[in-house]
Design a protein that fits this description.
alpha/beta; 23% strand; Lyase, Ornithine Decarboxylase, Chain A, domain 1; binds pyridoxal-5'-phosphate; TIM Barrel; eight-stranded parallel β-barrel
Length: 414
Amino acid sequence: MKVELGKEKVNDTSFIGGLAQELLNHYGSPLYVYNGETLHQTIRHITTAISYPHTQFCFASVTNGNIALLEIFRTAGWGLHANTPGDIYLALEAGFHPSHIVYSGSNLNRPEMEQIIDWGVTTLNLDSIAQLQLCCKVIAELGISNSSCRLGLRLNLPEITGDSRIGVNPADFITALNITNQAGLKLSGLHFYRGTGTNATTAFTKVINTVITAAQQLPNWEYLDFGGGFGYPYHRNGAAFNWLEFGAALTETMNKLGKKIDLIIEPGRAAIAECGTLLARVVSVKWQGNKQIIGVDTTVANLSVPSVHGGYREIISCQQNSQVSHSQTYVTDICGNTTYSRDYLGKNCQLPELKTGDTIAILDVGAYGYAMSSHFLHRPKPAEVLLENGKHRLIRQREDYSILLSNQVSTENR
Ligand SMILES: Cc1ncc(COP(=O)(O)O)c(C=O)c1O
């Protein structure tokens, strides 16, 4: 079977229709589908955009924690950026070596700090002086060799990131250096987080020098970590983050430093958004005046971004073909299969007339899609499928209702 789902192929809707039907018949609906070829292409595009030789890309698995997809990043030579201990747990399961996992998170309690250091993670970017203190204490208590640790600070620069809660201001670097010195450790890294979903490339390129100036205040500076926040163009023809421009600017500046500084780049949504599609079937059609109200067999609990977080995701009809795509479209709301008042997958979409049994595809949901799904509304989560080498395979089982009981303690057993 030929496999091509993705933004470039949107106009080839007869093809999408055939594939979508086949997948839904095989695996059931709704269904998350990931196009492996699209993912490989994106990884190649981002990887080659930054030619600076000491660069390590680390996929931000906060966006998608499916092990089969993490393995694709690992085999492409990427490391993993962990936001939480759970990210690290999944990364280890996906075969990442702890030395290829970079922790850049916030607010771990003591057992969690012990856990991630015990798992062998050695590059840690701390978000506050208190977290740095805790980290140094745990490293000493666990008897970890000083030379195997790379500690860094997350940077807070209000002139760039406004009132972001993240990071430590350079004014506090002296305090941080005292803490690491006393622990016999080096403070060798600086991590810069731009905020999420930034399509304006200049928002990154114009701050490179400021970030480097801050890093140069660390006497043992060895690495710079940039990410995430690299945008993805969810709106067709919308502004897109330009990796080539960013890569050229960053490479030029890094090459001029006169000493070898390791560069870590943490793309999240930019790496994985495009390859994911959520397929669903139409279960109900009604009209309110000229507006088409479509009920589908998925819900915002399966994909919370559009309704709950106000993000836009393009929705297409998989029935469209070259003839139909020229036919009339109607203002259409795509509604989920619950009575929750915010259960909209899309509002005011332009779609042709649909009928019960038709298939719709919600595009670009590889990031913050399944990862943000929940059991809110008490619907089990969809299955996930990977398209690779012309074949499809299940990479996560569809849940059944028993999941709603897991961890519940029945009063009858008391
Ligand atoms: C430190 C860090 N790196 C990377 C990411 C991924 O972000 P994005 O998907 O916006 O690239 C996040 C997201 O919260 C993050 O906190």
